Amino acid sequence: MFDSPLSASAYQVLGVEPDVDVEALRKAYRLRLRQTHPDTGGDSAVFISVQRAWELVGTAEARAAYDRGHGFGATPPPADWSGWKPPARPADTRPKARSHGQPGGWRRERYLELMREWVGRGVPLPDPYDPALVRSAPRELRRMLADALAEEATARVVSDLGMGFTVWHDVAAAGRGGGNDDKLDHIVLSPSGLYAVLSEDFGGAVSVRRGELTGAGVSGAPVADLLGRVRVVARAAGVRFGGAIVVLPDDDLGQAVIQLGRVRGIPVVAVARGALANVLRQGVPGARAVGGNEIFDIRTRLQQAVRFV
Predict the structure, then answer these.
(1) Alpha-carbon dihedral sign for residues 65, 71, 75, 80
(2) How far apart are CA 302 and CA 238, in angstroms?
């Protein structure tokens, strides 16, 4: 929460300006708690977000770290702050999943193109990832960056699953009448099945209705579009997908895994990112497991047929 380019900042959730003093910040927090408490008719999701916002900016140390990371005016560290930082973690030398393509690559390139257009042709482009600049950009740009970050986050989860997994990122699904964005975010091959994976960040809570995603930030029919792309790639490669997975930020899904049932003959689940590793290891309910020589055959077919956007 609050880390997505589409999310409100902690200050916006509390209803104050970033340069507000400590006492005014505390009063705003207490007011928002009363306004949003479920016992007085408030929204429980908003109530939780208010508490989370206070965790991020409620102390001098936390506020300083939050402001540095989100491009707000510098907040001086407390007088007793020593400058200590935790030691760096040792490098992870465990074998990673086989990976092909660049996760989030197309969306990052498109984000930079749109950012240059928005800033203005001939105008030097400042740091395109500066938090203050991102917050002020149109929603289309912030959505493009949010989806790129979502794809990269999913790629990190899959990579850590080990050599038994193979993943292809940004796979072209041409032939549906679309442009370069007509793609599968990820294809994951594992002993539990062959899955098409969509990584999304809609910037808010998402629910499920009749096999499709709904929510204030959801436009179109993401699940139907995903399955349309699955058919294109399946035909081109001569493979059969065992299931489809939509990965969402942990805070945006009401529970870790929601089964959407069989949609167009394919089992579909919506998964909070924190639960993705377990789902890929254990398999999507109703998906056909693969193993033995079949894994090598599917991998070979995909390697020969996959094209990247």
Answers:
(1) positive
(2) 8
Structural domains of the chain ordered from first start = 1-90 (1.10.287.110), 98-305 (no CATH)
Query: In degrees, to the nearest 5, what angle opens at C-alpha 141 toward C-alphas 219 and 188?
Result: 65
Strands 207-209 and 212-214 turn out to be antiparallel
At 123-167, the pLDDT tens digits run 888 889 988 899 899 999 999 999 999 999 999 999 999 999 999
φ, ψ at 107 (rounded to 5°): -70, -35
3-class SS of residue 97: coil
Q: Which residues contact 292 (CB under 8 A, 6 or more apart)?
A: none
pLDDT in tens, 182-227: 899 999 999 999 999 999 999 988 999 999 999 989 999 999 999 9
SS3 (DSSP) at 244: strand
